[in-house]
Amino acid sequence: MPKVPNWQLGREMAYPYEAGRPEWQFAFAFNINRCIACQTCTMACKSTWTFSKGQEHMWWNNVETKPYGGYPHNWDIKLLSMLDKANPEGQAWEGGADPKEKPYGTFGGKTIFEAASEGTEQSQRVMGYLPTDEEWQSPNIYEETAAGAPMQEGEWGGSTQLPEHKVWFYYLQRLCNHCTYPGCLAACPRQAIYKRPEDGIVLIDQKRCRGYRKCVEACPYKKAMYRPSTRVSEKCIACYPRIEGKDPHISPDGAPLETRCMSACVGKIRLQGLVKKTKDGEWDNVPDNPLHFLIRDRRIALPLYPQFGTEPNGYYIPPRWAPRDYLEQMFGPGVEAAIEQYCCPDRELLAVLQLFRVSQRIIFKFEIEKGPKVAEVPVTMPSGKEKTQTIYNDTVIGYDKLGKVAAKITIEEPTFERDSEHHVNSI
Fold it and tell me: How many structural domains does the chain have?
């Protein structure tokens, strides 16, 4: 098996094919702390792409409640257990972090590709499993079901104390991660799955697909789905006509647009874009790209289950109220540093966080216009330390691919007082 570099693991790993080199890579960041699980994103995707016969069980975008929820049921717990069985007590992170080469340290365990290559079944390239029909039945299973011990009689505030709540749950937003090393692509015996060289979006050629469901079995996130009415597999296509800027009404000048699930987000938790890649397949150093800033520079947005080895291109700002060991299993060892930053963001980070869901146009570049100091706020950090956050009313400007202003927003929300003489409902 060829060796490919995986910056999320901090090492090379085995993969059935040589590394691809897309010019740009489709990627996105979610701020879990803001999600209200309204499922607007879910229905935006469903009504656009999966409304036909045979697609009833297909939720290419879904929001599930952790720790008990999941679609299909227990999709992550099953695979984590299989990997642990294949490498008992060995699925752990090692060594110190290096900001560029090993931002989360080094993963010393086995990926889904490495665990499969050492098995007895030579035809299996990727460790995985096929969900049962029952596991596909309920996309909202255990919604808002909490874990932990509730408050006892006479106890006050015990279940809501930060840094971790005693009773907790959080919403996990999920769609295809359009991985750098997709499990679905590696497993397909027909080579019907491919990454687009222009943007890294992973697609299925349905003319080549024969419905063997190897992609369904191999995808660790279970975002490739079999359609029984056509006997082929389907998956998220990253709304590529919007990425290409082919919507004549919203993007008459051809500027790339966010996907349907991203642009419909009510809670403003989503930031989607394209990151520039070098000829070697590495992230190009573009510090004024908001995704590069959040993911590579500040490392506040973390990959989902990086230990699987697919190098997913979906990233998450972890919830600050959930147990750290649970979050580190899901997002890797960068959780504590990410939450510390989020609890008391500095001037530049606070400005960039305002760019989430402010425009349907993809933001390729940002700049900050400095404003006056407006507040000093005492903050108790998760570590227990006290800090003072100084807030400035800066203006952050986002530019699209054509260099046009796509968003312009201030830190303080402007207030407009209407004239009571002309507006009856004015105070």
Answer: 2
